[in-house]
Amino acid sequence: MPRIFGSKLASFGDSLKDAAEIVINKIDDKIDMPIIIDFVGIKTAGEECYSTARETSGLCRVTIEKAQEMVAFGQELQTTLDNVCPNRNSNKKMDASKFEIIRELVEGDRIQSATQLAQDLGRLSLQCVEKSGDMMAAMEKGIDALPDVVQPFVDNKMKSAQKKGAKKGDPALPDVDGSVRELQTLVADVETVTLFTVVGRGSAAFEGLRRKGELSKDMFLSIQNFAEAVESVSDSVRNVRDEGIGLGTSLTVLGNIRTVAKSAWRCLRLSGLMKAFAEQVGTLIRWIVRLFQTASARLGSIWGALARAKDVLAGCMVYVRASIRLCDDSRTKALLLRDTAGEIRDHLQAVLVFVSTAGGAARALGSVRELADGDEILLCIELGTRIDDMFTECVRQVVATIDKVDETIRDLPAVLTVDIPVPELAPLDAEDAEVDDREGERRPSGGNVRSATRSLHLADDVRQLEGMRSDIEGASPLTMIQKSAAGFSGVSDTVGKCGEMITTSRGYAETCRTSIDAFHHGNWDLEVAGGHILELFAVRDAGVQMRDFVEGVLELVRANLALMKAVRSKCKGGGLLGNGGNGGGANIGNLAESFASEVTLDDLKGLGEGLKKFGSLFK
After folding, report:
1. What DSSP letter does each residue of 87-142 carry, written as one string?
2. pTM (2 d.p.)
3. Were both Cys, which of 34, 237, 576, 603 would link to 247 (CB 3.0–4.6 Å)?
């Protein structure tokens, strides 16, 4: 029995030996030569891939930090806009004080920093693409270094790696194309933004920036995970053991090399995923940068223009308030001037009544001289001078307002007036008015029509006052009283008209003040935003009208001043009677001759007896 068992055991040993020899013979038959393994090539590939993976992993940590900053800024932008801008679903209102906040947000240093962050991420994504390419090249060389018995030569290694190096759970590439299309839509929306869409599209743009920033951060995190996995797997490749291996038939050697081959395919697969993710995130980042730049430029121009308009109108409010004060002061003085001129007219007319009575002529001339030496005419001249000074200043204030608002309107981006029925700007100067070819006269545009009609009537008034002044300067001593009475009658009437024009001018100033206040402190929700833009035009139009009226007042006041000064000069000058002496008879003769030559026959009939008595006073 023991002999039989020993014999069977020996037979089993021989069979096992024969089987091993058969396997080894098959291997030898297959390769027809001893196995030669390029350990240097395999280790070099592993080392290159390992070091590049470590660099990429560190690079990704930087990109993730920057992407997080970009996401935080997008969130800050959106939150700030939501806090200061009106929302249809809330009761929040926005006024002009928020313009500068939003302008600084979308045009200032913060958005420039965020744009720079995105540009940095774009450059980092390119570096990730480059490094993943280096890792792929290293692993392909490592796979080529494997013995054919383990890995026959493969031409398209990346295609093979998708199968040989894949693992369940490998992340799929996000729908970057869809995200890019969304960003392209946001860019187009911002490029065509208007006053009525600036809030909604601006908020959508920054919400898109935030979400796509999150996506880019997640993709960089995936790239980092790939890099760390490549770093771990390639470590086994670079540390493959070669002790005791040479020309041999060891099954252990073949097992180790097969493990290295699996690691190499896995590294190649991960490197390919990393490259695909890096390329796609680079495309995403480019559109994020584009959206940042477009939002900063377009939204910044709108909010910046609104902020500048607010500041300009705030400065104009100073001018408008000064104009209102000047109008109030001038009207008070104009009323006093009108009443005083009326009193002087009444006085002169009363003097004319008793010129024909006994001794009336002497008393008339004495009364006129006293009037000329007294305070009444001087008061009128002083009042006229003060009104002149104040309205000269008023013109300066109004012109400053018009110029600033006109410049602001012309600097408004075109998008701010889209879908708003803005009026055509009327010319600021008379020479800019259109010419009517049929009549050969200037035809003002827009609101200047009323100004032209008013100017026509004022020209008549000014010509009438100038004619009165000429009559007074050329009048004889006695007709001078009549001409002066007529002159002060004209002063009273035209200064009364000045008062009415001052009231109208003040109304225009009040319109400016109301419009500026509405722009500055009114609600800026979408339903009324267009009306606020029109308020700029209302301020300009009211300013132009006020300027024309104020300049008209100045024309009348200066014509009245010249007339009153002529009256006073004539009354005080050498045309009146002397104080006696040898020249008295000559004065009487000249006076009578002058008077007779400048009055009508009807006047002479009424004044003849008076002249006789007047002459007898000097016999």
Report:
1. -TTS-----GGGHHHHHHHHHSHHHHHHHHHHHHHHHHHHHHHHHHHHHHHHHHHH
2. 0.66
3. 34
Whether pLDDT at 280 is above 90: yes
DSSP letter, residue 297: I
What values do phi and psi take at 441, rounded to 5? -120, 160
Tally of CA atoms within 13 A in the half-sphere of 557 that contains its CB = 30
Q: Is 245's pLDDT higher than 70? A: no
Q: What are phi and psi of 442, to 5 degrees?
A: -75, 135
% helix, strand, coil for the chain, step of 5: 80, 0, 20
Q: Which residues pair with 435 in a beta bridge?
A: 442
Residue 400 CB-density burial (10 A; 0-12 exposed, 13-18 middle, 19+ buried): middle
Mean pLDDT, rounded, of the chain: 76
| Cross-strand bridge partners of residue 441 | 436
Neighbours of 536 (CB within 10 A): 23
* Cα torsion angle, 343, 349, 354, 359, sign: positive
Evaluate whether 99 touches 522 at the Cβ level (below 8 Å): no
Buried b (16+ CB within 10 A) or exposed e, 224-242: bbbbbbbbebbbbbbebee
Do 532 and 374 meet the contact criterion of CB atoms below 8 Å apart?
no
Q: Which range, of 166-170, 341-345, 579-583, averages the lowest pLDDT?
A: 579-583
